[in-house]
Amino acid sequence: MILNSFFPTLETKRLKLRQFELSDKKRLREIANSREIAEGTFIPYPYKDEFAVDFIESQFRDYKSGNLVNFAVVIDNQDLLIGSMGISIDNKLNEGEIGFWIGVDYWGNGYCTEAARSVLHYGFTERKLDKIIAFHFKDNIASSKVLQKIGMELEGIKRNEFWHMGELKDTVHYVIYKTDYDKLWQNI
Fold first, then answer.
1. Residues 171/161, Cβ–Cβ less than 8 Å
2. Which DSSP symbol is given to 66?
């Protein structure tokens, strides 16, 4: 079941970034139900069946409100859901914030970087944002590498920003401005 016929679809060399569908609920639960995913994100662990349905239904509401475009990351030639990549929009500031996770079995294949590059491009070219930010927990080195590969620059570290999984965690913040993105895009 498609929740919104106007939802954008992005395609890369290996991936399709599309709207989450209710038929994704079983697969979403399978790949999100991982302690490794929960440690690097705000996804609950264990990830219960009702979480998947609530998450998918919330995507329609958030997209309709104009505050979030969250894509199901799918290996295109297999139509296999492997994660989530989104951009929340602050319309007053005309900026976005990228957030993502990829299922553990798909780590180390460049899928996250490929999807993030596509969402960054979408944010600047389709949504006409001036700035895109992102953050990750300090111990999540893989996310740091993804953000650097797509051209984002380190903005700073916030100490003890979130209480997460029983401890205070530092976060690392990144930023890229439209003018810097345009310079990068010309060189690609």
1. yes
2. T
